[in-house]
Amino acid sequence: MILTVLSSLDSLCRQQACEALAAAHPPAAVVVHDLLENGTVVRRVFSHDGPVQRHETVLEHGCLSCTVRLDVVPTVRQLMARGEEHVIVGLPSGVPASTTIAALRQELGRDCRVSSAVHACAPDCVEDHIWDRHTLFESGFTPVPDDERTSGEFVMGELSFCDTILAAEPDVLPVDPDGRARGLQLLRELAPHADLAEDAARIRPGRHDYAAAVGRTVPGTVRTARTSGGPFTTVTHRIRRPLHPERFRHALATLAAGCCWLRGYLWIATAPGCRIAIHGIGPRIWLENTGPWPTSRAEPHLAQEAAHPGALQDPHTGPGGRGTVLAATGDSLDGDRIAELLASCELTESEMNAGFEALDDPFGLTQPN
Asked: Do residues 190 and 329 touch, judged by C-beta distance below 8 A?
């Protein structure tokens, strides 16, 4: 059996994408899940002859992803036993493709091959989603109040994991041609690894590589973007010395200004033995301690990065492979200004000689060297 797993932030985009995929692959069965406000998950199965099945499940522990994941596996197993050769799984709004695909791989193994992980979105809405400060619940994308992810966090996670982006534009509002062109260019910049399809019939099957997809989502991973010729660009900078934590804290707001996506890893003087991943998606920025610096490229979280095309290979690092690599994607970024700001955050020679012990730790990252 061949599987296409489709995620989306917008249920209307999901619906249009499922219909387009089904039309492009007439023999395929389509499985869609939806969450009702009373906590019921509705599963519907369609074939080219029409509706086949409808089933309701109570939301498991308030977690939509878990409920769908636990329901998708037996459903796909039933369709496999029925002899279906191609199944399209349309996930509810806000449910990541990664959790569902991981469950399918674990439970069904080689009998079930994921051909494509597709994210459906309206290009002219992507930038707005990234800059939305509200949670998925507050923005009306999910009825689960405890879901504190922002729209941008979900979208960037899917753009990193999925191998294909399908432009879906429901006939609700007229499409702004300029906004659409801008959105398409932004998508190419944010997901240089992915195919960007404007027609479901043009989706290339067999592109899903699970190991590569997981590698793209490792915290701190930086990949070079292809030049796409538009307002959005990506600049990448490397710093060999540790960063002064207080100077970096003050510079961070300026560094992130106008950045749709900020990512990379940091060498901060108050946690010299730890590799700190930085995530910046629209208005939200956070740091994550990913543990000790790897002693070699054979370490798992760097080996995954190095093993796939587009991974940033940086020989210009400090002792023990330590250093800072920061990539920013945004509209008309000033690369020279970003370089100057980062350089101003480096420890000076005298600060290096004085040691790190006396420095304040504004991020709460203090760890032994």
From this structure: yes
